[in-house]
Please model this.
Amino acid sequence: MRQVSPVPENPPLSVERLRELVHAGSVDTVVVALTDMQGRLQGKRCSARYFLEHVLDHGTEACNYLLAVDVDMTTVDGYELTSWETGYGDFVLRPDLGTLRLVPWQDRTAVVLCDVRWQDGTPVAPSPRQM
Model:
């Protein structure tokens, strides 16, 4: 029987290791992502330096529209969270550093999943990571 080699691991990055990779020019982008209602990654791409200097400690804003759209990115009626009638505001994406990893299919890029919080720090209950 032929041995099948295991898929190489992609271990979490420490913040210190990310700093080293950014300083060396090996990482220039961090995808700051939330999981939407369809299980897709949504969020924003930040320069790695901006991520380290700002997002790491304070998070970053994203429109709550991202949790109220269908697979075609069309707004869906009936959400208490947000609507055209009540407006689309921002929430905060707080990086979960246990999920920080290099993206093997994207050159010089890392990704981090985020917890979704309101501006006052309380969790956004309908966010998939909260359910």
In short: Strands lie at 29-35, 41-47, 60-63, 90-95, 101-102, 109-117.
